[in-house]
Design brief:
CATH topology of the largest domain: Rossmann fold
CATH architecture of the largest domain: 3-Layer(aba) Sandwich
Shape: globular
CATH class of the largest domain: Alpha Beta
Number of domains: 2
Distance between the termini: 50 Å
Radius of gyration: 18 Å
Helix content: 25-40%
Number of strands: 7
Bound molecules: zinc ion
Order of helices and strands: HHEEHHEHHEHEEHE
Structural class: alpha/beta
Length: 221
């Protein structure tokens, strides 16, 4: 018996939610009961400089706990949960599949401030954008945007405060921006869309023609 079969004999693969035997991280019934959002045209959520937003699921449990485990792994060698990461990246692929229409020129993450990046040690939005880019075979431009201000976390702020908090927070490296570009802009969770709008405004001011936000989950609704 090859070693892989022994491992599966000792630790049979099981569903991350219900624990039933499952070849995938989620069994089909648990997949069906996730807080899926109805597929809508991205433009349905267009606002200001943003030409639309797509997110496949609501930010409620169990999705919420997976995203938090993915974004804030406990320190140490075995900090990041392999199953939470696998599930979040699977949702990222599901989100990327929902975007139809013209293929964008590139896909780029909403960056966090370097100070936050150093503290966390990895960039969640970059990892999501990488997964989406590979899945849809689209060019990844990881350094198109950068944070010029370290803004406080948006959690707990009202809509108008969120908008002010992230105003002029980004700048664009124009040399990475294709002419009249159509761009997919990736973040983990969308709430009011103020962060995506601020980043999209920066890209449009630099010459981008179309910017669509692509997130793993959406709060509310
Ligand atoms: Zn299950």
């Amino acid at each position: 018996m090859p070693s892989q079969n022994w491992l599966e004999f000792l630790f049979p693969p099981s569903c991350s939610v219900c624990g039933q035997a499952s070849a995938d991280l989620l069994c089909p019934p648990c997949k069906r009961t996730l807080p899926w959002l109805e597929p809508t045209d991205a433009a349905h959520h267009a606002s200001g400089p943003l030409d639309g937003i797509i997110a496949p699921v609501k930010f409620t449990d169990p999705v919420r706990s997976w995203i938090l485990a993915f974004k804030y792994p406990p320190p140490g060698l075995f900090g990041q949960s392999a199953s939470a990461t696998g599930l979040v990246l699977w949702l990222a692929r599901a989100g990327a599949e929902r975007l139809t229409g013209a293929t964008p020129d590139c896909i780029t993450p909403v960056p966090s401030h370097p100070r936050r990046f150093q503290k966390r040690g990895f960039e969640p939005s970059y990892r999501l954008a990488l997964e989406m880019a590979r899945h849809r075979d689209i060019k990844l431009e990881p350094r198109l945007l950068f944070r010029v201000r370290d803004t406080p976390a948006q959690t707990g702020l009202k809509s108008s405060q969120r908008e002010a908090n992230v105003k002029n927070a980004f700048a664009c490296r124009r040399r990475h921006l294709p002419h009249k570009a159509c761009i997919w802009l990736v973040d983990d969770v969308v709430t009011t869309g103020s962060t995506l709008r601020s980043a999209a405004r920066t890209l449009k001011q630099a010459g981008a023609e179309k910017v669509v936000g692509l997130c793993v989950a959406r709060t509310g609704e």
